Amino acid sequence: MSEYTTLNYADVHVGDKLPELAIDITTGLIVGGAMATRDYEPVHHDKSAAQATGLPDVFMNILTSQGLMSRFVTDWSGPEAVIRKLDLKLGAPNLPGMVMTISGEVTDKDDSSGQVSIAVVGENNIWGMHMQGTVTIALPQEA
Amino acid sequence: MTPEEQKAFEDRIYAYVGVKVCERTAAKDAVNPAMIRHWAEAMGDTNPAYTDETWAANSRRGKTIAPPAMMYAWNQEGFTVTRGRASDPQTDMVELFNEYGFTGVLGTNVTQEYFKEVSPGDTLYLEMEIDSISERKATARGIGYFFETLATFSDQNGEKVGTQRFRVLKFIPQEQPTAATGDDKLEVPTRIPSPRGHDNGWWWQAVDEGKLLIQRCKRCQVLRHPPRPMCGECQSLEWDSIESGMEGEVISYTCLRHPAIPGYPKDPVCAVIKLAEGTNLVANIVGCDYDDVFIGMKLKGRIEQVDEKTTLPQFYPA
């Protein structure tokens, strides 16, 4: 278990900031993410279908946004954290060529359940807020 | 729509509240390592709880788990949706919205709650219903209704694994989207271009060339900034300029948190800076946190290219 450490509930404080994660949005990520979540809606892999809706290219599906949000949090918390809730508001689409930067901050701790709430924002460099919300995780209470 | 027509429409739409979109149905595949690995690769997620069986065997859980964010993926229909979706109460409801002109669609919120982790070998069951439809709302996108679906996931033993609420706005688009065709590259936004007029263009030109100039009255030698045609002291129209050493101190400062402006860094620190030569300049302070800035702080400036099209004086803690 050595190379993977998990934060203890006591190690985390309201106001702690998570390390930012910048993700290059590529066609590969959009199509690969859609396939990996079994989302075959044409707008996520077929450029002409996406263009018919008024966007210039294929765009990221929601299940990939959820996946990136959960990864962002567990990259920081470590693997023993248990994800309890992903609550997200959807904003501007992610298209190939954009860079989405995810940032987060601990906003709440619940001592009785060992749960920690993290406000997370994913902003792309062209159209701004792609996703914004709260991830709730449970952390181990002792080492 | 007349009030009577609206009432008739709403009677039909609200009849969908509480209707089951699908009965409890098993996913086509049990939770399995291959689909988990595929997901973890695409997300760039190296969490060993998902993919490292050796690590997981020694962890608190004792085995690998499926990423909770994959919950909805297991029950997706799959490739056949490329040929269109089969009709169900939700597609029927959407069709009814479309018929009345509410053709716009926008997913606004999605909330997943997880009650139990699942591992390879478990099978997820999905049931879904239309949970609520809002009253008619005027939104920035147009007039419409929010509907919310509630998907409930359980395992092969009937234990509840999680829920997903998905909120969608169906609206009358203010303008029909026109199909995009161009293959133009997305343009990365840059900062608002400096307004360069007859009286100040020379100053920006010097910035482009890497120099911070200060206008000086030729007659009385008083310095002035921002650039303007007449000396405020002696009313002379004759002027030249000196180059600033870009040393200064903070007179006042703020942080522009909202709204975020495309092309600008997040939460930029903007300051009024008193230059050693005596004039004031508005510029950004970079290279330190907003919390570390104080009035009287000494600064040293540099002319820097801040994006593809923009060159600006930037000030750092001295």
Automatic annotation (TrEMBL), chain A:
<dbReference type="InterPro" id="IPR002539">
    <property type="entry name" value="MaoC-like_dom"/>
</dbReference>
<protein>
    <submittedName>
        <fullName>Acyl dehydratase</fullName>
    </submittedName>
</protein>
<dbReference type="InterPro" id="IPR029069">
    <property type="entry name" value="HotDog_dom_sf"/>
</dbReference>
<dbReference type="Pfam" id="PF01575">
    <property type="entry name" value="MaoC_dehydratas"/>
</dbReference>
<feature type="domain" description="MaoC-like">
    <location>
        <begin position="22"/>
        <end position="115"/>
    </location>
</feature>
TrEMBL record, chain B:
<dbReference type="InterPro" id="IPR002878">
    <property type="entry name" value="ChsH2_C"/>
</dbReference>
<feature type="domain" description="ChsH2 C-terminal OB-fold">
    <location>
        <begin position="244"/>
        <end position="301"/>
    </location>
</feature>
<feature type="domain" description="FAS1-like dehydratase">
    <location>
        <begin position="25"/>
        <end position="163"/>
    </location>
</feature>
<dbReference type="InterPro" id="IPR012340">
    <property type="entry name" value="NA-bd_OB-fold"/>
</dbReference>
<dbReference type="Pfam" id="PF01796">
    <property type="entry name" value="OB_ChsH2_C"/>
</dbReference>
<dbReference type="InterPro" id="IPR039569">
    <property type="entry name" value="FAS1-like_DH_region"/>
</dbReference>
<dbReference type="InterPro" id="IPR052513">
    <property type="entry name" value="Thioester_dehydratase-like"/>
</dbReference>
<dbReference type="InterPro" id="IPR029069">
    <property type="entry name" value="HotDog_dom_sf"/>
</dbReference>
<feature type="domain" description="ChsH2 rubredoxin-like zinc ribbon">
    <location>
        <begin position="204"/>
        <end position="239"/>
    </location>
</feature>
<protein>
    <recommendedName>
        <fullName>DNA-binding protein</fullName>
    </recommendedName>
</protein>
<dbReference type="InterPro" id="IPR022002">
    <property type="entry name" value="ChsH2_Znr"/>
</dbReference>
<dbReference type="Pfam" id="PF13452">
    <property type="entry name" value="FAS1_DH_region"/>
</dbReference>
<dbReference type="Pfam" id="PF12172">
    <property type="entry name" value="zf-ChsH2"/>
</dbReference>
